[in-house]
Amino acid sequence: MERILIVEDEPKIADLLQKYLQNANYQTDWLNSGMGVSDWVRKEKPNLILLDLMLPGKDGLEVCKEVRQFSNTPIIMLTARVEEIDRLLGLEIGADDYICKPFSPREVVARVKAMLRRLQAFAHPDSKHETTTAPLLELDRDRLVAKSGQQEIALTLVEFELLATLLQHPGRIFGREQLMTKVYTDNRIVSDRTIDSHIKKLRKKLDEIIPEHEVIHSVYSVGYKFEA
Ligand code: CA
């Protein structure tokens, strides 16, 4: 059974989320403050984290940054602060998705399912997402890792999807809008800069394993393409 960690300081919201997620056959755990979350995650390894932004002790931004230092577990931020969303999904914080407060618990369950399905699609090689190989770079979908020879680097789900999308069609130019549709279920509020910052981070990571090659190219005012 997949395990969802809910980090939320309002018991009413946490109860409601737990009830709906359990009805959808997920195991849930609840922490009511930001303190101790990363230790818990390190030890218990949940499949997904629902993380409230405004928390006592340590806020969701700090918690997300901490968890990202050692884990690429999908993180969905719960937030009433629309103006924070670009930052949440961007380079600095590294969340995978967000849900705006107030939300319906049904919507949360749907988004959790969608994100876990994306991961599963990666984990099963017989699905429509086949393992993509390029002479230079190989993607390991089970572990969200990019490899080149003996070198490898862990990616977040969003980084992995961006790279997989570009890699599947070498030379094809993808617009930012297209890429956003690929990686975010609900991209109404996400701006172009979010994609740019993920690409920036992805390039930096790829540079660690293939320093002599630049494979993700910007196409001025249009978007990005992969070319070895
Ligand atoms: Ca809160």
Notable traits:
binds calcium ion; alpha/beta; Rossmann fold; three-stranded antiparallel β-sheet; 2 domains; 20% strand; 11 strands; 228 residues; Arc Repressor Mutant, subunit A; 40% helix
Any overview of this molecule?
This protein has 228 residues and is of the alpha/beta class. It folds into two domains: 3-123, 3-Layer(aba) Sandwich (Rossmann fold), CATH 3.40.50; 132-226, Winged helix-like DNA-binding domain superfamily/Winged helix DNA-binding domain (Arc Repressor Mutant, subunit A, Orthogonal Bundle). It has helices at residues 11-23, 37-44, 60-68, 85-89, 105-123, 157-168, 176-183, 192-209; strands at residues 3-7, 27-31, 48-52, 75-79, 97-100, 138-140, 145-148, 151-154, 174-175, 216-219, 223-226. The strands form three sheets. A five-stranded parallel sheet has the order 2-1-3-4-5, sandwiched between helices. The N and C termini lie far apart (40 Å). It binds calcium ion (CA).
Order of strands across the biggest sheet?
2-1-3-4-5
CATH architectural grouping of the largest domain: 3-Layer(aba) Sandwich
Largest sheet: 5 strands, parallel
What is the CATH fold-level name of the largest domain? Rossmann fold
The helix fraction, in percent, is 40-55%
Topology as H/E string?
EHEHEHEHEHEEEHEHHEE
The CATH homology group name of the largest domain? Response regulator
Number of strands: 11
Specify Rg, calculated over alpha carbons.
18 Å
What value does the average pLDDT take?
A: 87
The fraction of residues in strands falls at 15-25%
Number of domains: 2
Terminus-to-terminus distance = 40 Å
Uncertain residue segments: 124-134
